[in-house]
Amino acid sequence: MTGPTITLSGVYTAYEGAANPSLRNINLTIDRGEFVVVGGPNGAGKTTLLETINGMLRITHGSARICGINLLEDGVGVRRRVGYVIQNFAFDPLSPFTAGEVVLMGRYGRLGYLNRPKEPDIRAARQAMQMLGIEDLADAPIGTLSGGQQQKVLIAQNLAKEPEIMLLDEPFSNLDLIAKHSVSTLLHDLAGAGITVIVVSHAFDDLPPRPIRILVMNGGEVTADHTCTPDEVEDIVRTASGSDARA
Ligand SMILES: Nc1ncnc2c1ncn2[C@@H]1O[C@H](COP(=O)(O)OP(=O)(O)OP(=O)(O)O)[C@@H](O)[C@H]1O
Ligand SMILES: [Mg+2]
Fold this sequence. Notes:
By secondary structure, the chain is an alpha/beta fold. The protein has helices spanning about 45-55, 75-80, 100-105, 110, 120-130, 145-160, 175-190, 235-240; strands at about 5-15, 25-30, 35-40, 60-65, 70, 80-85, 165-170, 195-200, 210-220, 220-230. A hairpin with a 2-residue loop joins strand 4 and strand 5 (about 70). The chain is globular, with a radius of gyration of 18 Å.
């Protein structure tokens, strides 16, 4: 289970209609099972990097291979293998779905449109909810849950997908101290199981006890790339991004 799972070569990404690219000349190789933290100030390009990796944004120059797939040829195939927990997501308060149904939606990419979930799908969804400690929320309408509870549902949905790569954008922002620690432990276990974990975060106080690859972004570029211990991450980010590393 070694070898690159993400290779970006000379990648530029631009938003529709934007005068300048938001990612500039990204050259990055990430191996299976690496635990990557992406830091840097607001507007640096962290979310753009995640959405480039899973093919949601258009690459204007360069090439990308994700899970052995040419991203420019098969973005759907890439997204089937990549989990993505987006930043600041909130479900519609009137959404008709229960939390359990939302988690089960993580299986839809495997099912195809006309197939109903089968026993393994239901089991995967149930296990993902157990891992987040939210089994008791399964029947609650998703829109009635708190921000932190909704975030756990979204993480569970992506776990149920059984991805090869898990992208998480500020996953700790709505979580209480206990939940933060348990999600950190969960991500540690995922990386231990060979899943590549990439976390965008401004909080570095509860990183798992393992080598951390820290990427610091500034102005759409990766300006620092080190593998270090969890304790060293904050200083590296602060030094590489200037005084507003915690912005
Ligand atoms: N939908 C969009 N259309 C045009 N430009 C955008 C869009 N989203 C982001 N940008 C621009 O791309 C750049 C990078 O934004 P991005 O959201 O990746 O930053 P970030 O590092 O995730 O910041 P934050 O810490 O605030 O989440 C910024 O200059 C931003 O203005
Ligand atoms: Mg962002």
